[in-house]
């Protein structure tokens, strides 16, 4: 199974509503990642201000950042290789990587999940 | 007309909070209260959480976040919690380790993200919770007095626990705005303990401090109601700076006295439900333990030097500002300042001045505490002046509805729930309001637009970042409205835009205004004018008490004119409230 890691730029929230307008792209990506995680796939997401350590430690990501600066974000790694720089994968790409259909990425769980405060660190 | 405030007879809870807009005398009242309680044999801790606090000056003592004994007052301890310092420390803790490891430009984007109002507020609240829930500290003292920050800040500070409790529980995806602050999530229990302490009348008393003037009473009323709503019901109103007598032959003195008495006739109903006390208008500065002790003895005048030469005669009045922006062909004018300094009045007067000079002007307000309709009442307006208002609450709702309507095309119910939650973030309001005035500006043609509030530097920097970000990645543009795209560079252009900072010649308002200026400078915007409003020094009163106050203004007029302002203008204290087009013209004659 493939491992996908997404390195987001600094932003307050993962849907991007704090910007001048909501970016539907970010909302789509957030939903797709949510669905994939629910299915048990190995997909992780790091946000610059929350997890700066991940950005500094990962040599692939750090190299891209030194070369292109913060505008290179988001950076997407697939199995530790840089797969995309400066934009998010489409649902089709996600589907291909994980061998699911793009439609499945729009399926949502029906119940709200309660969050374990301690896991937020 | 009210009972004199004396803490010994009034205060009987371990916690005491002071609230009121900047400049009403919270710090002085808090200090005097602390000294009086300590003098009566109680052990007292006085804590300042106000970033503009001058607690240190009052006691002539360097203060830190650990309590220090105040010399000359047995049993009194004081400490200073600067929320901005706490926020800086927090920011450095997050960012510091990555300097040198990540490129500088990347570190800069992290820093900006952590420079918002939220970070400062959370940091402040965090400091404050630590004290409120620490039995080791609490048990040592009979009274702990919090000299809190100005109203808006205080409100958010105190409202936070409820907001955050709800937020932490409801967070279904665990990312969101907790983002930079996620380290605080495990303090949830402490937060709810703080809320309990605050809403327990046997534990906490709220002192609402106001001046005897209409706008600060309105503000106190708003604070009172909002705090009652979140459960802080044990409230006492203190009318600070009440002039006890006046000189009949002095026009300023008698007008000052009657304005105060008239304002007090209009105390809002809700405030009348509280116990009300008063403190006298005093000419001496409330620094040093002796002067603080005088206050509750209701002394108003110790002897002082009364003659002085007026140095403000060479400072321009408001028409200096108007002529300047008029001849510079400025298209966009923002007046900026904390609540109660008169930025709506100044914006209105500038607008009228420009109309009188022959310009077409559109005036708009976003200040929820300001009422342009109040300012103009039912006047017949000049045909070259149009007026509109932006209500932040309405704009936020509109923005949320807009976003949800747009997004519902692509998202199902669960996705929408997810988005809705992010929309409850505190940043949403700033963005929504900015969009609203971008729309107002976009709709005007051939008109000068005067706005009685300005975006913060932080908002501008975030918008800027978002803008270049979306340019960079054509694929991932949310639809940044045209009006916003067009407005950003205009605000940055000093040929087109003038920011006018409004303040009073007093410690807290000047400090607050200088912080606004620093924040704008971060976004490369240089305020063009400072306006010192309501100056007694610029009048020719001979009333000994008012004159004492006027002399105390000198220090702050110098500070503004020589250190802070590029160009400085001063407005003398006005004999009456200026309401209506014709009356507002008095400012420019």
From TrEMBL, chain A:
InterPro entries: Arsenical-R_ArsD. One of its GO terms (molecular function) is DNA binding. It comes from the Bacteria. Pfam families: ArsD. This is Transcriptional regulator. It comes from Cytobacillus solani. One of its GO terms (biological process) is response to arsenic-containing substance.
TrEMBL record, chain B:
GO terms for molecular function: ATP binding; ATP hydrolysis activity; ATPase-coupled arsenite transmembrane transporter activity. Residues 12-242, 329-526 form the AAA+ ATPase domain. InterPro entries: AAA+_ATPase, Ars_ATPase, ArsA/GET3_ATPase-like, ATPase_ArsA/GET3, P-loop_NTPase. Belongs to the arsA ATPase family. This is Arsenical pump-driving ATPase. It comes from Cytobacillus solani. The lineage of its organism: Bacteria, Bacillati, Bacillota, Bacilli, Bacillales.
